[in-house]
Coatomer subunit delta
Amino acid sequence: MNDESSGNRKSVLLDEPRVIVVKDRLGDGNTDIQSLPTTNTATILASVKRSGMQLGGGQGGLKSIDQFVNRLKAEGEVVNEDVMKLVSGSGGTDNLMSTNSTALTQKSHVKKENLHLRIEEKLIVQAGRDGGLESMELQGTMFAQAITNEACEAKIRVDTSMCTNPPNEHRPPAQLQTHPNIDKKAFTSTGWIQIKPGGKPFPNGQEVGILRWRFQTSDEAALPITVNCWPNEIPGGFEVNVEYELQDPILELENLVMSIPLPPSTKPPLIGNCDGEYEVSPRKNQLDWHIPIVNNENSSGSLEFTLKTERGAQAEQFFPLKLNFGSNKSYCGIQIIEATVSNQDTPINFSFESNFHAEKYEIS
């Protein structure tokens, strides 16, 4: 990637001759994807020029990624076939940044203990470009996986106070629902999730859902993060200002990617300021703005760019703007207190992981 002295800005223009290098940072399978000039011989994912060799067709272009790989091999380049799978069926390199962020967010490296507990929360948001929230829904599930026979008889005590009585007054209380095999009365009165009398124990080695929660709202103040996009028409094109702000200081969002559609243009956008990194996809007419971490210390940022457009371009063509992010903290704040063997109160070693992510977050 290119660092420019005018600011903290990194860019990837996919119509320049580049190589994409995938590095294993820690030796644990986590990868960094880096764009370098083609003079650096390395593992090659794709090299695209607007004229000449193109993926996906066009006059004189290559018709498939396989043909592209074969040509690179014939020219003596080193090609890692595993890396090519990153773009297989995903439309080439255009989704490179968002694909990387999703993989880093969802891949788990938690060592599983005798009992493994997992929380998954999905956020679905539809907001308006002029402000206001049309709809917001959060769906959460807690899963349990018994690794040993002893853990099949486990019971788990949880704290759901932040879920049913959220600190954000604009966020409604979530509705909780236990699995039919769970003792609902015991959970409601004591906070213990346990098999109901006469119920089947947890299956050994199989992950099962034990608790669900959900809430809906149209109050914009309940959003974890807000985004404003202002396309202003100027002679020959548009000047666009985009900004984000974290609403909930407790949260930490990872790999935030904002995908902004671009009207047809003969030139790439000219970036004036960018907090984070950006990637331009000429084939999809899209700009992806990437911020690695959004938290209380990095709660806001902005992106400014100008774009020369064809005659007749409209501000509406910069929408819908889509967000993708993840977090290892529960949005509703559900906490695991302890786990024991049912009817014995013998502690069980348990592991825990949480994944909160935007399943669909659109501003249109």
About this structure: Confidence is low (pLDDT under 50) at residues 1-64, 79-106. Residues 183 and 196 are 4 Å apart (CA to CA). Helices lie at 65-74, 81-84, 96-106, 161-164, 184-190. The two ends are 31 Å apart (CA to CA).
